[in-house]
Specification:
There is one protein chain. With 245 residues, the chain is α/β, with parallel strands linked by helices. It is 27% helix and 24% strand. It has seven helices and nine strands. The strands form two sheets. The chain has a seven-stranded mixed sheet. Strands 1-2 form a two-stranded antiparallel sheet. Helix 6 runs parallel beside helix 7. The chain is globular.
Amino acid sequence: MPVDGSACTAVVPFSNTNPWVDSFRLKTRNFVIGGTPFVINQAWDDRTEEDPEPTGMKWTGAAVWDAAVVLSDFLCTRKSLIEDKRVLEVGSGLALVSVVAASLLPAHIIATDYDEHVLGLARGNLERNVPELAKAGRAEARQLSWGSEEDAAALAPPFDVVIGSDVVYREEMFKPLLKTLQLTMGEHTLLVLAHRPRGLGEDKFFFWLKKELDVVEFIGPELLPKEFIHSDVRIHICKKKPPRA
């Protein structure tokens, strides 16, 4: 307190991460990404044992994970990746990345997940944060089960850009995910994946990935937002290998 006895207020910079709060359990999370505020509704405590997900981890899409925040921030530094493009997000969960990408004015963005409960939350987050694009049908959430040719074809691929965060976490889903990437990418499509290593066999996924795709850029955690340096998130930007002669 100042010597004259008057009150004082400390100005604390906003942070998208707070070590003193269990962020997963918040019903609503506020973010500032690329200088723009976003509000995302979560449902971590709404999960039940009757709602298992194919990966056996219940629906992990019920909360925002660090890699989604890191990827969202990265896209704001590379707006040309998104602007006027057809964009697909795989494993979108609550669709934070799609919400932020939609604010960068793509031609069309589709957030996808397999679980209808999660998709309902994703639609609500799109409608809340980018209402004009959602109303115009330029930002939407649709079902996509990894490995399903029918689901992929219904989205009218190929896309200009495919994005995903923290989608590499269960080995039995690696091959279905890779198949979906192949089904939704074209010759010129860029794949942007944000990934946090957890020792869950991810090396095998990236070994298989590099058989089909070229990594054109790798961004390590030291080049990403410092507030998430503890998460060790890294980003791979890939495209299909050229046809063999």
